[in-house]
User: Fold this.
Amino acid sequence: MACGILIFTLVTYHLSFDTFHKNPDRIYRFVTEWHDDEIDRSSSVPMPVGTAFRTDFSLGQITARTFLMGNSLVTINQGNDVKKFREENGVTFAEPGFLDIFNFPLIKGNSKELFGKPKQAVVTEKVAFKFFGTTDVIGKVIKVENKTQFTIVGVLKNIPANTDLNTEIYVSYGSLIDYDAFGNDKNWGGVMSSSKAYTLLQPGVTRAAADMALAQLPKKHFTGRDASVWKFKLQPLSDVHFNTEFDAYASKTYLWALFFIGLFLIITACVNFVNLATAQALNRAKEVGIRKVMGSLPYQLFWQFIAETAIITLVGVIVAVGLAELFLPMLNGLFKTEMDFHWMQLSLFIVFATVVVIFLSGSYPGLVLARFQPILALKSKLSQKDVGGFSLRRVLVVTQFVISQVLIIGSIVVVAQMRYAQTADLGFKKDAIVLLPMPKNDKATVGTMRNQLSGIPGVESVTFCMGAPASRSNSTTGINYDNRAEDEHWGINMKSADDQYISTFNIKLVAGRNVFAADTVREFLVNETVARKLGIQPKDLIGKKIAVNGGTIKGPVVGVVKDFYNHSFHSEIAPICIMTQSDNYYTAAVKMDMRHAKESLAAFEKIWSSTFPEELYSYQFLDESIARFYELDNTLLKLVEAFAAIAIIISCLGLYGLVSFMAVPKTKEIGVRKVLGANIGQVLWLFGKEFTYLLLIAFVIAAPLAGWAMHNYLQDFKYKISLGPGIFLAAIASTFVIAAITVSYRATIAALTNPVKSLRSE
Assistant:
């Protein structure tokens, strides 16, 4: 029941995401699709899409664009005191109307004047306290990324935990022009992951009508085949948190899986209760006989047992609520959430679950007791057949172990997939590489940093780039190959990097050469996927010209690199081009000898801090960054493992109870066998063969169920393990070991009993 309460809390928490807004059914996010040989999707759109929808159509009551600058540096100047903060949730540039679409209440400031002018900022109460120690911050100034100063014109009520829009600092969208790389407001051909747009549709306007209007934009703003490849659509707000085709936190499949795990745990416990209650029913035969002789009717006996079950269940629920309170902080820490118990909602669940458990557990044993014949009961002539016999308990034990084996197989599959993700060849080196942010990337700064970092003992190589080979932040654009009349029907992932990039990350060349050192784009490296998409051999790409970013960046292909993963295993390897676009070098990646890690990291900080005295130092190991791709998977793995362990323990308790009751009627049989010369092993097999059959039956049922569930789980990964027989053999083997340990203790006691004593007692 405690697990059930926690799972209910987790499921309802995620189902509540962004449901608190005023008109959640009318709020939509713009998304991009590319329809070609395959359908690719992005939760972001080119910057002009929001503006075009607002000006060309009257379907949206309010439309607003946003741009998220992640992990931003915010500086506060208070006299001679300078405070620096690193905002992990970033700073969002927002257009007027954004806070009218979403229900983030303004507690200070005038909502009608927000973001209408450049250099305005709105912060939450939490951020105001963190920055200034008070919420009276109207007129205060903050600086973002040491570039633009923003005046605070509003204070928001703290952002609820159950929203995907968790930014706590919003600034004027018009100020994007101050940030060179982020101010391209006219580019229809590029999609940056940080560029979003939202709309609140007019009352009565349907999503289908808006999608039909959006279908006109590619025809108006693209030429050739691009006009049919590019699609812009609306995504309902209720779909944002769960649609993994975009950037959802988790699929609803995960929530359903947790729901059924909780249900299975409660069923397993109920099965135990029924199992043990019916086995003990013979001990109450005389009580039932006397009650019937004294005039008790069957329904009174039934309700008596239901009442007894209710008392046990209610005590269990009280303890369960206490356990759930105890473990909720651990669950929050595991999922990095701020869940709390909503007692009104939770009380309804607890009452419903309690009533179901009482009747699920108590009905059958109550009916069994109520139908006892009083004469047979008083004469102690009732047998196991009168309480359902061992056949019923066999069915119940099989049910328990079906559930346990499904969870065991699930755990093994998730563990194997996670190990595959951690140990598979990514196509680049991820170990012993430190990523340092580059707030300034002019030629002089990059050159000085390169010389200083390279001179540190233990540093093997240094490269300056937009980001690591695998990154959450990706920029996709169109590509034109060999001056063809029209662009290709797929997008390419642009990666800016210097000539040391492929050697630092150990990316292999399969054709051609590396790019030469340069500050501007003169030539390209592409990956094997580009060659495959073009339908030509990698060597035939060398010397061919390509143009990207709407044709603004051009040059010949000088080398083809082996494919490497540019995201997690949930996504396919994208077509990639690497180019020496130095104004996009936002990261310094340093490959080092880990034997000198402590000294090297200290030297990095000293050099970085002296180069960027106005910034806040931070660094990250690449392997830790990649591990974050699978944070949710690892969290779910821990939960499945915990619930599987609980299910196994409950099943073993049922198994132990069953073997205990089996041992009583077999006492004489065991004594006779031992007198006739049977050894302990032969006696143990009396019990072992019984449970071998039950476990095999459970496995035959569990294997296809678990196989189907895990096949669906693995569909979320583009690169995954195969469901081979080894997984299922490991599951059945582990189940047999667990069952053998459970059965052997009680069976050994029965086998070691003195046969003379057991026969005499009979």
Remarks:
- The two ends are 42 Å apart (CA to CA).
- Residues 27-240 form one domain.
- The longest strand covers residues 60-69.
- The first helix runs from residue 2 to 15.
